[in-house]
Amino acid sequence: MIRDITIGQYYPADSVLHRLDPRTKLVGTILFIVSVFLFHTFPGYAVATVFLAAMIALSKVPPKFIFKGLKAILVLLLFTMVFNVLLTPGEVLWRWGILKVTREGLSLAGRMAIRLTYLVIGSSIMTLTTTPNQLTDGMERLLRPLNRIHVPVHEIAMMMSIALRFIPILLEETDKIMKAQIARGADFENGNLIQKAKNMIPLLVPLFISAFRRANDLAMAMEARCYHGGDHRTQMKPLKYVGRDYAAYLIAWSYLAVAILFRIIGI
């Protein structure tokens, strides 16, 4: 389960999406997320499916590698669907005691499952095709107008980039600690919910200690290199839009226009 989380990881490849400007990918991801909430019918989700499938094909990332990230949210997905099916009022299709399944509940559960799945896949495509340094530069350039109202844009972008970079590192550290604890007789699978929660304590304590140690090492390394952010800081690879970025913007905004149109006419 730990190894199945793909958000925050980078998959090196030579694809059109990898070569896009990070600002283009950030804006495109935001527009895709907005479109997922604009679509509210299954014909609309079919359009989103075609668009998402095209992005997966263009990324040249193996689909199995992208879809395995859904295993990490499987429990959340199941809970969301069950609660929507059982607690949404409407036309009753099946009843057993106080439990009932409604037509509206099934429809809402299906829409919520599709939205959650597409949000994870869309975000994964962005992180899989963009390095943490590129994400930092892209977010900083997009948020630069906020500098006028004294918002620490560079620091915010750096924190978000470090958080994304530390996700795969902490997952790897969690996997190592879990295997070491299992070798010493720990059991993370059996028992009831309370027992499983207690069994997680030997895993969480060393994980937090390791996370704080890594954070301290990173801070000391940045200070030793006289790192400072903010104004007047140059970039090794300045961001610059090219033709493919403008074409990607045109496609992304056209796709959002289709989503808005579907919402207006109720398709």
Describe the structure.
It is built from 11 helices and 2 strands. The protein has 267 residues and is mainly alpha-helical. The model has no long low-confidence stretch (mean pLDDT 84).
Keywords for this structure?
2 strands; single chain; mainly alpha; 67% helix; 267 residues; flat; two-stranded antiparallel ribbon
Low-confidence stretches: none
Q: Give the N-terminus to C-terminus distance in angstroms.
A: 37 Å
Helix coverage percent of residues?
55-70%
Outline type: flat
Helix/strand-derived class? mainly alpha
Strand content: under 5%
* CA radius of gyration: 22 Å
Say how many strands there are. 2
What number is the mean pLDDT?
Answer: 84
Helix and strand element order = HHHHHEEHHHHHH
Question: Which strand order does the major sheet show?
Answer: 1-2
> How many H/I helices?
11
Q: What profile does the largest beta sheet have?
A: 2 strands, antiparallel
SSE layout:
Layout: H1 16-19, H2 22-38, H3 42-59, H4 63-67, H5 74-87, E1 92-96, E2 99-102, H6 103-128, H7 132-142, H8 153-183, H9 193-199, H10 201-224, H11 243-265
Antiparallel strand pairs: 1-2
